[in-house]
Amino acid sequence: MNVKKVLAAALACLLLAGCGAKRTEPLDQETAWVDAPVIAYVPLDDRPDNVERVVYLAESLGYQLAMPEAVLYSTKLDGQPRNFDSLQRGEPWSLFTWVLDQEAAGCDRYILSLDQLHSGGLVSSRSMTGDELELPGGGTTSASQLVDHLLAALAEDENNVVWLLDSVMRLAPTVGYEGGTLEEYNALRAYGAAGRPALPDRDIQASDVQALYQLGSGGTKLVPVDFGLTEERVTEYLTARSRKLALSERMLQTVECGGYENFRVLIGIDDSSEEDSIQKNEIAYLRSLLREGDALLSGVDDLAFKAVAKLYMAESGWDDRLVHAGVTYFGGTEDQPACDYDYKPLKEIVEEHLEFFGVSQLSGGSGAADIEILVLTQPDTEAYEAAGMSQAEQDRWKKNAYTNLVDWLEAFRNGHVPVILIDASNGAYGNEFQQALTEEAELGYLLSYAGFLDMAIVTGTALSHGFARYAFLQSGEQSEAAERAFARTLADSIIKDFCYKHVVREELLGYIRNDLGGDPNNFWAPEIDREAVQERLESGMAKAAAGVIENLERSNLISSLEPYEEQGWGGIELDNYRFPWDRAFEIGMDIRLGTFTEPHKKVWGIYYR
Which DSSP letter does residue 548 get? Predict the structure, then answer.
């Protein structure tokens, strides 16, 4: 008889006999948080990575996030209903007054996105050319002075801890915002990616960087028409870059000259390139202005994750511990960028983040690490082809990469070693890696997982969540509410990647284009039947998520390190699916959980509940 059938039959008998922990029904209402420390948080914008996932992470560490009304920080694409019937962006003046209200109420922890406070959000920061901001009741204010006043006000209280999040502007502005087209995006990105002269090795200012914007690597002026652009459009583009860089420079000089010791600056590099692009001098210059404790790293949509994690680590005594992480790559391309939009090889990006979090790196599987980090890269197809491999042989090598990873994950799980898992393969293995993990691994055991959305943010996302969780387990401050928030952030990351990105989104893209005649990047341009898209999303997720939810529900999570303890996941239900920006790129959803259980048992390699 087939071995799998034997195991399945035996497992069925165990379940019928009532063995093992039972599935607990998801609760309709969570227990309210009481007396949790508050972080006042101004998000980058209203996408899930900047809102609910930050809430989950903060709550998993025992914090509560105070946030302004969503209308004050939301972004609207062209053709969509606007904020206050007029704005496509957030409203900095109202956010400024909101932060001051939190200060007056006694808050002393802040995470503030400067792209939101300077420009009304990340997308707007890529196109805004002037310093003036319109006020809700009429008139204008200065973006730079607004932030100057805010920082000065927060600096008056020496008990305040303030994280300032900023970004290096990406190579091109956003398609579908203020009339931006895909053709224009491609042309401007090519212009921005062209090599520039190296920054002079002397005392410089932002104006020195800006003086090189229009010059190619040979020192001659780049010709806009060669990129399919007009002089006027290039001038607008460079003016927006100049504004963005000058605002970052001013902020960094303010915290340095003002002696703002309790302020930390974290700058992310938005969609980038490994070439000597227009960003390279900006990156070098901004890095030269950083103080000890500040950082400039790859990724923007993971900035708040990193800030929350570092805030907790500082308060929980992480800096007094020496944490070792073993790092193992599978796939063979860790010496290359994970995608065309990152500025360094993947291995260097990982090492920069380990340094940022104060973690010492070891070889994976040495037995001396506190945490193991497993990273799936893209397959080394160039090496396969150079070796003369057939397609069948290449497919076997690809399968070996992710099956070996799954085997390592199982070995660490059996040895009670905490694991952070990063999928940096950018979809190169299709759905096969996710299927193997769902069928063979215990997903709920992971400290963290990242693979959804842009490759530039997967490293920062996985490591910030994983190290934060490890620090929390070390602290011994566990609570039911924090554990449930941790479960949500892990489930959110896994389900969106395995089920939405790799299955449901692909079907939706074709449905919107071919059946509805619409644009998956904006359901309002042209306007389509959004109810039909919502129905497709819900039915698709119900089917795609079933296996992953079953895996999580029979998983155990690490609930204590000393002594080592586990508990079983309870039931999981997903509802309130939504498209935050009315586009198919990402989704939001609510995750309802049942109460945790006694640890699920393992019989013949299979966990049952």
Answer: H
Beta strands in 131-232 (DSSP E): 132-134, 140-142, 161-168
Report d(CA 311, CA 111) in Å as an integer: 9
Reported as a single tens digit per residue, the pLDDT across 518-558 is 999 999 999 999 999 999 999 999 999 999 999 999 999 99
Q: Token pair 């080394």 is at which residue? A: 380
N- to C-terminal Cα separation, the chain: 25
Closest CA to 111 of 167, 166, 48, 52: 166
Distance CA 115, CA 122 (A): 5
Residue 138: Cβ-neighbour burial (10 angstroms; 0-12, 13-18, 19+): exposed
Tokens of 369: 């690490």
Which of 368, 359, 430, 372 has the alpha carbon at shortest distance from 401? 430
Provide the CA 399 distance to its chain's centre, in angstroms: 27
Q: pTM for this structure?
A: 0.94
Predicted confidence (pLDDT) at residue 21 exceeds the cutoff of 60: no
How far apart (Å, rounded) are the C-alpha atoms in residues 346 and 207?
A: 31
Q: How high is the pLDDT of residue 297?
A: 96
**Contact status, residue 413 vs residue 477, Cβ threshold 8 Å:** no
Alpha-carbon separation of residue 308 from 21, 312, 350, 490 (angstroms): 34, 6, 19, 16
- Give residue 558's identity as a one-letter amino acid code: I
- 3-state class (DSSP) for residue 428: coil
Three-state DSSP at 450 gives strand
CA distances from 258 to 147, 153, 289 (A): 14, 12, 14
The 10s digit of each residue's pLDDT in 85-138 is: 889 999 999 999 999 999 999 999 999 999 999 999 999 999 999 999 888 778
> CA 224 to CA 233: how far, in whole Å?
9
Q: Which amino acid is at 15?
A: L
Integer Cα distance of 206 and 423 in angstroms: 37
Q: Which phi and psi (to 5°) does residue 75 adopt?
A: -110, 140
Handedness of CA 297, 301, 307, 308 (dihedral sign): negative
- Non-local (6+) Cβ contacts of 369 within 8 A are 324, 325, 326, 362, 417
